[in-house]
Specification:
Transferase(Phosphotransferase), domain 1; Phosphorylase Kinase, domain 1; 3 domains; 5-stranded antiparallel sheet; 11 helices
Length: 328
């Protein structure tokens, strides 16, 4: 496979954009690294490439994304050049109806989930996300981002949409309980310090190379509380939940930022809960999973009393019955 696979016009545009940084760059090979049909809707066709080149006798390698829907790279610009464990944005080019973004290429292995990672890789991953968070902690005004993470959403409405009209009438009281629980959880989250939140931190978005972890895909960032980026460590049985929380608190302390361990764990769990409850129609089984996790996440006596008063055991059983019926 040669550079011709990406097209001479694109290759020329990339070489011209890299000229101020590297001088004259000759691109020698382009390898597509995503699936052959990486389409994200008719309005957003995109592809990913590993491109080799050279300037003089020095070899160079770049990671390139080409998409037809304009995407913000502002976060990548802000993170670049700070010595952080993230790819460096080298160029962003508008070529006709395409946006071409060029990053430094980072080597490393990826994992399908954090639960399949060795514990050493988990520690490296959490230290890396903590370093990025701490680096921008003192200057959030530089980030033109939403003020709250995407998980602050009306979950009770989305759950309601998945029920039939008859089920909504039957379980209306339960949805009101869920709304009350959601309001409590959102208050718990939004009263915390606001820091940079990745919002899509998962195994495939972390490159592990020895004891180094590089975090990629910073397109969905927002401002949110400490721990919002770590929600996947609370998924399933939470194999590495405690390790992730302890590592984050320790690394942030090393960077001069104090984080409350108990609040951190609550945020991690609530973040995961809202993701489960906001699952799309293909994943209705997430609803009872989210509600069960919600029970263990609550730490306030008033919330516990609310569960007891409304009969939470029945509440969970009936939601499980709904999910089982809808998945037949």
């Amino acid at each position: 496979m040669s550079i011709g696979e990406i097209g001479a016009r694109r290759a020329s545009a990339i070489a011209a954009a890299l000229l101020p940084r590297f001088g004259a760059v000759e691109l020698t090979r382009a390898i597509r690294t995503d699936a052959s049909n990486s389409a994200h809707g008719k309005q957003n066709r995109r592809s990913f490439w590993k491109i080799d080149g050279r300037t003089g006798d020095s070899p160079l390698t770049f990671h390139v994304r080409i998409c037809t829907l304009k995407r913000s790279v502002e976060t990548s610009r802000i993170l670049s050049g700070r010595g952080l464990p993230v790819p460096e944005l080298l160029a962003s080019i508008q070529l006709g109806d395409e946006q071409i973004d060029v990053w430094s290429h980072e080597d490393g292995d990826t994992y399908s989930s954090f639960n399949t990672m060795p514990s050493e890789a988990v520690v490296s991953t959490v230290r890396s996300i903590a370093r990025v968070t701490a680096a921008l902690h003192a200057a959030p005004e530089t980030m033109k981002l939403p003020s709250r993470a995407w998980w602050v959403a009306p979950c009770h409405r989305r759950v309601s949409w998945k029920l039939t009209h008859q089920q909504r009438r039957e379980f209306g009281r339960h949805l009101q309980v869920l709304k009350s629980i959601e309001d409590l959880a959102c208050f718990e989250l939004t009263e915390a310090d606001s820091v940079l939140t990745h919002n899509d931190l998962k195994g495939p978005n972390v490159l592990i190379n020895g004891d180094k972890a590089t975090i990629v895909d910073w397109e969905n960032v927002s401002m949110g509380p400490h721990g919002a980026s770590l929600r996947r460590f609370s998924s399933g049985k939470g194999k590495f939940e405690r390790l992730a929380a302890e590592t984050y608190v320790e690394e942030m302390g090393r960077q001069g930022v104090s984080v409350c361990p108990k609040r951190l764990l609550r945020v991690m769990r609530f973040q995961e809960i809202f993701w489960l409850l906001n699952g799309n129609t293909i994943h209705k089984e997430r609803i009872p999973m989210g509600l069960k996790l919600l029970v263990s996440a609550l730490a306030r006596p008033v919330a516990y009393c609310a569960f007891c008063f409304f009969g939470m055991d029945i509440f969970l059983l009936e939601y499980e019955a709904i999910a089982a019926h809808r998945n037949r």
